[in-house]
Amino acid sequence: MTNISPDGKLTIDDLISFLDTVEWYDNSRIETIQACKRKAYYSQIGPTGTPLAKRVGDGAHFGTCMHAAHESYYTGWSSLTETARRLNGVRAFQNAYSELFPNGPQRPIHTLVNGLDIWDCYCDACLVEDRLYRPVDPEIGLVVRVAPRSHEPVFKPFWYVGRADGVWERVAHHDYFVGELKTSSGGVERRIKSLTFHRQPVGYVFQVRELVKEGKFPEVNNYLDIKGSFCTVMGIQAQKRDLDREYFVLSEEDTEDWRAETIENVQEWRTRRKAVGEMGRNWKHIYYKETEECTKYGLCPYWDLCKFGVTPDSLADFTIETWNPLIGSRPAPEHVEISDPGTIRISR
Length: 348
Ligand code: SF4
Known about the structure:
Blueprint: E1 10-11, H1 12-21, E2 24-25, H2 27-35, H3 37-44, H4 58-74, H5 82-100, H6 112-126, E3 133-137, E4 140-146, E5 158-164, E6 167-170, E7 175-184, H7 188-194, H8 199-213, E8 226-235, E9 243-249, H9 252-275, H10 283-286, H11 303-308, H12 312-315, E10 335-338, E11 344-347
Parallel strand pairs: 1-11, 2-5, 4-10, 7-8
Antiparallel strand pairs: 3-6, 4-5, 6-7, 8-9, 10-11
Helix pairs in contact: 2-3, 4-5, 5-6, 8-9
């Protein structure tokens, strides 16, 4: 384990160094493995042994700005007025926007004015309902060790990393939900439906339940008091404003199934990695293409490599992948809970 000061604090640099030394996965890594093995190979291994960075489009940057506003808005929940928090959200959005859109957006839906208006509408729409919830943490990093339990076949442990949009208490019920915020330009109703048992929020609930078992959330005694996910989808359109928030209750079986499926995915990926070179097997056939994925969310960032082949010229367009969910394109959350040993508050 990496350096932890006696007060249990870790710097973000220590945490990043730690992740450099262990085998870790997150929702993005597992979903990429599931979607296209070739894409996962480029982004997680790389033809020269160096993972190639995915280019991020305006839609993802706009979502990052909204996440920054959301985190800022729910910070100081009990000590600041709603007006002050709303303005903090505006500032956070503007700061993130000026970094991520230095040359302005390409589409009208991604203008600063549109973003701030969507943000303001979110605050208005949630004003009454928000009184029913208490943000225990407005944003939280989660790093959980997944290891064999006593009754399970042995496998090599790995780490699972996440960054959830808060842990929320339903005040009247004294139970808890783990937040997930999404932005969508393709329809709020469809997106919220997709989150009902989506791997990402279910994974967060699994992680928080595991950390409760380890005693990391002292105010929660029973891991099943973490009832499920609390998903928000903000529509990103120029004319129309659309928003939905839903609770999705998740059983213990739901999160245990998620754990078992994740272990299967990791084991299968490890087997695939070991197979390269065995019996003369070619990496291209092991990390095969899944061509339905190429244009699913805009053009795949590795399209040129698949079309023209891996050459020094095509590789020159890429930088080294250093992204992880805790740093991404904005500062790390102040609170990161990690499996053994001890709670960590990031010191800045
Ligand atoms: S271009 Fe298509 S086949 Fe190639 S990595 Fe991307 S999604 Fe996979």
